[in-house]
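Re: that backbone. Tokens:
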């Protein structure tokens, strides 16, 4: 599903609000009703928000196209969210270790 979404977003959506966006991960709920799409977004915060808004606006089109391509009887509802930037994602394990030790953030 990730590759299909990347292709749809990159090549088939013509909304000018959509900037640099790449699907990094798709997490599907156990009941297959929701799909959480994590995106690596380029640009500043304003451009990223505009991209997310445009994708939410195009959600029904994306769901229809995915259901046709993947031949799914029931397509989960898509939820878009920005993935953590690489530099922040690298700090997460260190922050979790600090929390476990009970040390305050310095």
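Recovered sequence:
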């Amino acid at each position: 599903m990730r590759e299909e979404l990347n292709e749809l977003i990159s090549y088939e959506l013509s909304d000018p609000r959509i900037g640099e966006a790449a699907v990094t991960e798709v997490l599907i709920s156990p009941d297959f009703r929701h799909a959480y799409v994590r995106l690596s977004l380029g640009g500043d915060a304003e451009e990223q928000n505009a991209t997310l808004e445009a994708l939410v606006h195009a959600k029904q089109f994306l769901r229809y196209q995915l259901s046709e391509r993947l031949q799914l009887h029931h397509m989960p509802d898509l939820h878009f969210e920005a993935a953590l930037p690489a530099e922040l994602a690298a700090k997460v394990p260190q922050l979790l270790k600090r929390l476990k030790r009970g040390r305050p953030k310095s």
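Residues 59 and 98 are 39 Å apart (CA to CA). The chain has a mean pLDDT of 87.
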